[in-house]
């Protein structure tokens, strides 16, 4: 038996307690293309590397959100592609009883920060398994990225 009384007031307080839990982190999508292999592999020039990142979120159920971080790594020599790697890392998060004014930052900053290390590892692994030296994605300031997106959205509405 429990020493704590099971009163409606305690149950109501527990029901309104903030909840933020990771349900699952998973590799949603991965692709590696080498359209000019093997000839491009014999080139001696240093390739250029372009890295693009994106964050998406969508509600999947009441209080449950999927957040995805996508990385695209496009490596070229001149105008020819050496490889194009794309990975999308997803996470399912339970988010309940959080004030509405904090939800955007939680979904747009905290969730991507949790997912990103998994994405970095998967990108490096995918590229290495393709026979190339790994590309290590730099640390990202998701708060600055989120604030920039908010500023752009506000400027668009004006």
From TrEMBL:
GO molecular function, one term: unfolded protein binding
Statement: the UniProt record of this protein carries the keyword Transmembrane: no
Identification of the protein by name: Protein-export protein SecB
Subunit-structure text: Homotetramer, a dimer of dimers. One homotetramer interacts with 1 SecA dimer.
Keyword Chaperone among record annotations: yes
GO BP: any one term: protein folding
Matching InterPro entries: SecB, SecB-like_sf
Database matches in Gene3D superfamilies: SecB-like
Keywords attached to this entry: Chaperone, Cytoplasm, Protein transport, Translocation, Transport
Coiled coil stretches, renumbered: none
Source organism, top-level taxon: Bacteria
Record organism: Limnohabitans radicicola
Family: Belongs to the SecB family.
UniProt cross-references to Pfam families, sorted A to Z: SecB
């Amino acid at each position: 038996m429990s020493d704590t009384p099971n009163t409606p007031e305690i149950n109501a307080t527990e029901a309104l307690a903030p909840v933020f839990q990771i349900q699952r982190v998973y590799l949603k999508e991965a692709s590696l293309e080498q359209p000019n292999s093997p000839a491009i592999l014999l080139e001696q020039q240093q390739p250029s590397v372009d890295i693009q990142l994106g964050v998406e979120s969508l509600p999947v159920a009441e209080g449950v959100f999927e957040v995805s971080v996508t990385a695209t790594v496009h490596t070229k020599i001149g105008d020819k592609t050496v490889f194009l790697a794309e990975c999308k890392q997803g996470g399912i998060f339970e988010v309940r009883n959080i004030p509405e004014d904090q939800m955007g930052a939680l979904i747009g900053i905290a969730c991507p920060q949790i997912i990103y290390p998994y994405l970095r590892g998967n990108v490096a692994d995918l590229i290495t398994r393709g026979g190339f030296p790994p590309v290590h994605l730099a640390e990202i300031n998701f708060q600055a990225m989120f604030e920039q997106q908010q500023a752009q959205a506000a400027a668009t509405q004006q």
